[in-house]
Amino acid sequence: MGKRVALVLAGCGVFDGSEIHEASAALVQLSRAGAEVKIFAPNIEQRDVVNHLKGSPTEEKRNVLVESARLARGNIQDLTELKAAEFDAVIFPGGFGVAKNLCSWAVDGKNCTVNEHVSSTLQAFHSAKKPIGLCCISPVLAAKVFPGCEVTVGQDKNVDGRFPDAETASAIAELGCKHICKNVNESHVDKANKIVTTCAFMCKAPLHEIFDGIGTMVQEVLKLA
């Protein structure tokens, strides 16, 4: 029987929701591994709505759960309905929606607050010693909720211009966590906390390398499950 995995989304679209390629990559890898997946998102208003063609915010109001349903093909539940006891693992794709809707990192950095249902979900899986997978910017959720944990968002220096958000590693360290430098096609496993992270689009890399990195994250999560 396949592992039961919860996937938590933050909207639909890189600039104000979940990064679509990351969500798809995780779903493809989970499907290939025979996992049973259910998708969740918080039923809250987005912090903002971005015109992805122009890259600028609009005056629209959108709901995170409703927008996430686009990625889930309508098969999605309110995050409040997620019960850790019913799953073997949980995975959070990245995208600015994580830093805007699941927490306030986009505005407050390391001083951010984490949505109460996101925090309680992470704590429930952690307390049950069940693995948590995070990619792109979503490792900051673990850094905020679990001081002392180990995560990666890629490199801590902007190597060859490929890691423009390398300062995120420093902010993670300031939270009392250990940042582990990894390449885009790699993931890091914090065995003590059962947290698996990969940098994904925190690195400027070809799409297949990002998919490969997410693949290693999913594989490590399923090994721990």
TrEMBL record:
Matching Gene3D superfamilies: 3.40.50.880
Lineage, highest ranks first: Eukaryota, Metazoa, Chordata, Craniata, Vertebrata
Origin superkingdom: Eukaryota
Cleavable signal peptide: none
NCBIfam families linked to this entry: PRK11780.1
InterPro entries assigned: Class_I_gatase-like (IPR029062)
Name listed for the protein in its UniProt record: GAL3A protein
